[in-house]
């Protein structure tokens, strides 16, 4: 075996269900509840009320068994449940890869978007089944459910990219994304959470 391989992972086939967000074989499954998104929504009172009112699940991330290790390409399916906090759409925490490396997302079900921010410029990619969103190195990224049903996407990323959540807490994502007229989201400039 060449030295760049990471035992004990062998070639494998992974099946997934784009309608349920499950993978088989399955690795870790992460659940993010409203209380895990402290400091991210603009309306702190509305966020606190949602936490007090059952602390609902906002999203889940189901990973394959491929490890987050140098040289590997882990995959995960994120399911963001529909909803808002005072009109601001349910979203992932968002992160930077401290080891700047690219990533691809593939829309599986529902509708959403990919908000990217390089510290100066916010960018938005509409996501739906069959759309590949490309995240270049150096761009923080957050996913948003802009629809009324679960939004799911597959992510494939370098195993040594890492996840820096503090960067987004400190710098924001350039925009906030709210329910707008009809199916079109409304974007507002980022304001720090009070
Ligand atoms: C990993 C990739 C996704 C996210 C997932 C949850 O690089 O971008 O699997 O981890 O969508 O988002 P977050 O911001 O809570 O990690
Ligand atoms: Zn990422």
TrEMBL record:
Keywords: Gluconeogenesis, Glycolysis, Isomerase, Metal-binding. Pfam families: GPI. Its EC number is 5.3.1.9. SUPFAM superfamilies: RmlC-like cupins. This is glucose-6-phosphate isomerase. It is an enzyme of class 5 (isomerase). GO terms for molecular function: glucose-6-phosphate isomerase activity; metal ion binding. It catalyses: alpha-D-glucose 6-phosphate = beta-D-fructose 6-phosphate. InterPro entries: G6P_isomerase_prok, GPI/OXD, RmlC-like_jellyroll, RmlC_Cupin_sf. Transmembrane segments: none annotated. GO terms for cellular component: cytoplasm. The lineage of its organism: Bacteria, Bacillati, Actinomycetota, Actinomycetes, Pseudonocardiales. Residues 32-178 form the Glucose-6-phosphate isomerase prokaryote domain. Residues 12-23 have a biased composition (Polar residues).
